[in-house]
Amino acid sequence: MKTEYFRVTDINGAVFEKAAGVINRGGLVAFPTETVYGLGANALDPAAVKKIYEAKGRPSDNPLIVHISALSQLGGVVSEVSENAKKLMDNFWPGPLTLIFKKSKAIPNETSGGLPTVAVRFPENETARKFISACGVPIAAPSANTSGRPSPTSAAHVMDDLDGRIDMVIDGGSSVFGLESTIVDTTGKDAVLLRPGSVTREMLESAIGKIRTDRAVLEEPGGDFVPIAPGMKYKHYSPVCSITVVDGEINKVREKILSLLSADGEKGISSGVIATKEDSGFFDGFKVIEMGSDNDEARVAASLFASLRRCDALGLEKAYVKAFSEEGLGLAIMNRLKKAAGYNIINV
Ligand code: TXA
Ligand code: MG
Asked: Is 222 left (phi over 0), alpha (psi -120 to 50) or beta?
């Protein structure tokens, strides 16, 4: 299959008509959102949705997020909206927040992974909204990466993973937030945070009060517990390069990483460090991938996945990265880093 590539600006409005044609014929279109790029299909068409799983190599029990471009579409895809859901929608939609609802009959099992619930997101990104609205149907979309790889924050990342496997890519530039949406289950009496993102736990709590956080957000699933969001149980966000997180007092962390890099060098292992601007000068003479600044966690979040992909582009076998605080946006950053590292964490 030839993947057609368009910049949003290439052919103005016509790109959306073209994309809608692909979706309405049961095809796949990758599109930008403010979180990461999504791989879209008609959420109501089981055959189209199956193609998403094939293109990504995604396990079929991992449900997709249904994207809408107007609140008026919600009634068609869900059967109940709780008080918590209403408050969260009022505060954070459109935006980087996905809510879990009881699903309506219109949602096929292929989209919901066989669950009685459905994940719904109303993105803010203008290109995403124009695309969904042109299609005239809700759009099922996981992140537009090969299953297990870091999520794509640019159209180039999408092409690296899926060129020749999907019908079309719409290039709308780099994703502003760069981490997948926050996911909150609103179906029970108390809301539960299933995946942290740019709508932080603190922001959610300011809208609906204390919220429970699923254990899978920071602990390795397996053994005695299963995450509520099926996708959280899989190895994720992983470059081929092996990632190690180093946690502790910053001077000790820098020294530890420096000694690990030196030891790798002596053994002929190609390694590097993913570092903030403030730390990077400390690793002179080693391969440094710069990832934002300590004073700007939003930049760190936005460049995290690109930095992980960069490790592979540089052919690194190993890369080290410091742990961040788990407050605010740090919770989402640490959730992705721990998964990328396969929970390989050194405490100093
Ligand atoms: O920012 C995002 O959320 C991006 C953009 C494209 O919108 N999408 C995304 O999709 O990250 P994906 O498929 O990579 O992650 C969806 C997550 C998975 O962990 C999945 O298990 C969970 O949402 N999920 C979907 N439906 C669910 C449901 N009914 N109950 C619990 N978890 C659900
Ligand atoms: Mg994903």
From this structure: left
The CATH 3.40.50.11030 portion of the chain extends over: 242-347
Helix or strand run (H / E) with residue 77: helix 74-77
Counting residues of the chain whose pLDDT is more than 70, the rounded percentage is 98
For the record, the structure tokens of 328 come out as 């605010």
C-beta separation of 321 from 246 below 8 A? yes
What are phi and psi for residue 268, nearest 5 degrees?
A: 75, 20
What is the Å distance from ligand 2's center to 152 Cα?
9
From 39, 65, 149, mutation site for ligand 1 pocket: most ligand atoms within 8 A of C-beta: 65
Q: Strand, helix or coil at 160?
A: helix
DSSP 121: E
Residue to mutate, 66, 143, 149, 195, ligand 1, most ligand atoms under 8 Å from C-beta: 143
Q: Tell me the pLDDT tens digit for each residue of 83-95.
A: 999 999 999 999 9
Nearest to 273 by CA among 289, 285, 284, 249: 289
Q: Domain 242-347 is of which CATH architecture? A: 3-Layer(aba) Sandwich (3.40)
The answer to whether the CB of 67 falls within 8 A of the CB of 122 is: yes
Q: What is the three-class DSSP state of 173?
A: coil
Q: How many CB atoms lie within 10 A of CB 157?
A: 24
Model confidence over 203-242: pLDDT tens digits? Answer: 999 999 999 999 999 888 877 788 888 888 776 677 899 9
Helix 83-92 vs helix 201-208: angle between axes, to the nearest 10 degrees?
120
Give the residue from 312, 334, 305, 148 showing the smallest Cα distance to 246.
334
Where does CATH 3.90.870.10 sit in the chain? 4-233
Q: Residues for the chain: how many in total?
A: 348
Our answer on whether the CB atom of 63 is closer than 6 Å to any ligand 1 atom is yes
**Where do we find the tokens 């949406």?**
181
Averaged pLDDT score across all residues of the chain: 95
* Ligand approaching nearest to the C-alpha of 229: 1
**Domain 4-233 class in CATH:** alpha beta
Given the structure tokens 């390069």, which residue do they identify?
241
| Token pair in block for residue 32 | 């930008």
